[in-house]
Specification:
Blueprint (H helix, E strand, L loop, with lengths): L2 E7 L4 E2 L5 E2 L3 H15 L9 E9 L5 E10 L12
Antiparallel strand pairs: 1-2, 1-3, 1-4, 4-5
Pfam family, one: DUF6894
Protein name: DUF6894 domain-containing protein
């Protein structure tokens, strides 16, 4: 089975996979990266409410085969809040 490596970054931090894991196909490795991104996105939210989480799937030679991204964009409109009283 081929070995794939999944690296993660969010603009401020990056995590390089030096061990890799065997997957039956590139699609299976891609699906594993997709499944992991929501967990990465559960970290403490950034002050501005915006962050992009990216996963890269590499082969054993270091070639990037997939780029998967998850965008967080939280915007509040406090002026729209109705006053009760």
């Amino acid at each position: 089975m081929p070995r794939f490596f999944i690296d993660y970054e969010d603009g401020a931090q990056s995590l390089r996979d030096d061990e890799g894991e065997e997957y039956p196909s590139l699609e299976a490795a891609r699906n594993a990266a997709i499944a992991a991104l929501p967990d990465v996105g559960r970290e403490a939210p950034p002050q501005d409410g915006k962050r992009t989480f990216v996963a890269y799937v590499r082969d054993e030679w270091g070639t990037r085969l997939c780029t998967i991204s998850l965008n967080l964009d939280a915007t509040c409109y406090p002026e729209r809040q109705k006053r009760r009283g």
